[in-house]
Amino acid sequence: MEVVNAIGRRKAAIARVFVSEGTGKIVINKRELDNYFPSTILQYVVKQPLSKLAVDGKYDIKINLNGGGYKGQAEAARLGIARALVKINPEDKAALRAEGFMTRDPRVVERKKPGQPKARKRFQFSKR
């Protein structure tokens, strides 16, 4: 099997995922998964599609992440991994979609409007 690649996005984070057959090693920006995401919750988020399909130790995954914060990056990586696994085996798509791993979360930060301190917050109103 050659390398299969996919892209995952979330908020401002972009993950380019490269999946090949191997021993289950996950490398993000040339660092190990537990080194890049010290939080076990975020490590769990990244591995969710693999554990759902029970293919944890079957593929080596290389991820290039940039933009966004750590939560967005972890969820972008999860979407990229799920898309790559579907490219490898299209029958897995239904199982991953049922868990919500195939859906690109469209929520992004709303822009700041002029004449306001933030997107929706207003300056204090003074009657007199």
UniProtKB/TrEMBL annotation:
<dbReference type="GO" id="GO:0003735">
    <property type="term" value="F:structural constituent of ribosome"/>
</dbReference>
<feature type="region of interest" description="Disordered">
    <location>
        <begin position="106"/>
        <end position="128"/>
    </location>
</feature>
<dbReference type="InterPro" id="IPR023035">
    <property type="entry name" value="Ribosomal_uS9_bac/plastid"/>
</dbReference>
<dbReference type="InterPro" id="IPR000754">
    <property type="entry name" value="Ribosomal_uS9"/>
</dbReference>
<dbReference type="GO" id="GO:0003723">
    <property type="term" value="F:RNA binding"/>
</dbReference>
<dbReference type="InterPro" id="IPR020568">
    <property type="entry name" value="Ribosomal_Su5_D2-typ_SF"/>
</dbReference>
<dbReference type="InterPro" id="IPR020574">
    <property type="entry name" value="Ribosomal_uS9_CS"/>
</dbReference>
<comment type="similarity">
    <text>Belongs to the universal ribosomal protein uS9 family.</text>
</comment>
<keyword id="KW-0687">Ribonucleoprotein</keyword>
<dbReference type="GO" id="GO:0006412">
    <property type="term" value="P:translation"/>
</dbReference>
<keyword id="KW-0689">Ribosomal protein</keyword>
<feature type="compositionally biased region" description="Basic residues">
    <location>
        <begin position="114"/>
        <end position="128"/>
    </location>
</feature>
<dbReference type="InterPro" id="IPR014721">
    <property type="entry name" value="Ribsml_uS5_D2-typ_fold_subgr"/>
</dbReference>
<dbReference type="GO" id="GO:0022627">
    <property type="term" value="C:cytosolic small ribosomal subunit"/>
</dbReference>
<protein>
    <recommendedName>
        <fullName>Small ribosomal subunit protein uS9</fullName>
    </recommendedName>
</protein>
<dbReference type="Pfam" id="PF00380">
    <property type="entry name" value="Ribosomal_S9"/>
</dbReference>
